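User: Some background: our group keeps a shared notebook of sequences we're curious about, and every so often someone picks one and asks for a predicted structure to add to the entry. Today it's my turn. The entry only has the sequence so far, pasted here. Could you supply the structure so I can complete it?
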Amino acid sequence: MKNLTYFLLILLSGLLFSCVKDPETTCSETLRPGDEKTEYSLKLNISQDGLPVKALSSEQAKADDGLTRLDLYIFYENDPYRNFHVTLAPDPTGATSYSVSGPKDERVGVLAFGNLDEDTAEFLEGKTLDQMYNENNPEAWLVLSAGNFDFDSIVMAGAAMYDFKEDGVIDIHLKRLMFRIDINQLTVDFDDEELKGKEVRVKNIVLANCLNYYVLLKSNSIGHFYTWYLFFGQEMELDGAFGGVEYGFDYYRNRPDGWDPAGSFTVDGPGKLNGTFPYVLNNNWQKPKGILNIDAEGILQDMTVQTYDTASDEGLIVSSGDNSDTPHTITVDKCFYGLLGAGHSYGTITSDFDKQTLTPRLIVELLIDGQSSFYPIEIIMPQPNTIYEIENITIKSSGSEYSNFYEKKYDVECLVDIVPWQSIDVPNINVGCDPLTGETVESY
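Assistant: Of course. Here's the predicted structure to add to the notebook entry:
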């Protein structure tokens, strides 16, 4: 009998232990009258957020991406030893549900990421909030070129915070960490008579100066897990934002101290995250005249570049000798994707060479009678999870010799006069030298 009792005690303690260690298990407690519940459960319903469209045309863009993988990172404020990571297969019919538990008065924070690459998900496992918040060290950065993009699988993020005082249910909506620019067509309609009659071809359209990495958190406090500030910074009224967005997320710093935009950083992570990566994709900041830098590779080049083979007669917009006043149009039909970061402008698109900004640019390169002419468009404060649907870009005049900015020209007023001749009388000049010493005679 004693052995049986001992065995039952061991079995019971094992069951209690498993309830604490397994985050998906909620222990049902048998409470006697007057007893207080000490362990509570939280049900999470995670779904993909709606996709706002900043339509600059009458067409409404369609999203063609979805949720293929879901990773949850759970943080307990008072007991970090309970922190854990779990990977879920999204429910194709709608919200994906998952339950966590916690003791009375514990606070839990949940980070939910959609479509992380497997190596990135493993890399983030066990990382602290301080590490995910660190903008100067890539110990927990999201690296875009490490498999974290596909056209039908874009990285998303969402979060929730809960205080365990009772059982609860929370919905988590995921927003994409990227923006998209759709261009339907490009039109040449020169106002400058000197440009008319010249052959015009489009050579490249490039989304440039976009970051290749993302500092995941803008706060290291679980107290911010209930707002979008956690991922995107301050939400407020905007002035001059791309597409005329009047309210959204303002610029947030996303650059290491002393960084070189043309440089790279090294990550010691698993698989695809063990290597060196560029800070910026298609960096055109302070490039010389006539240079359009395209360095994104593979699928990242596909998402940021549209190139026309002008040698094979592609990209022709205006034929040589065509002096008509009719606008000439070419269909572009291209979607460009950019990762958020470095999105605010402290200057203008027209500046001195050493004052140009490093905000994202949409750069159109035309060949006008075979000579490159650049038309950079500044993308100020692009918004997450947003499509900018542009029906048409119209070229009206000459472009820039530089891909990243228009060179500022200065008007200088000068008063020019002629200084009168100055007259000096020279009655005599003595010439010659002493044959013994070689010294010249005194001239005057």
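Suggested note for the entry: The two ends are 137 Å apart (CA to CA). The chain has a mean pLDDT of 85.
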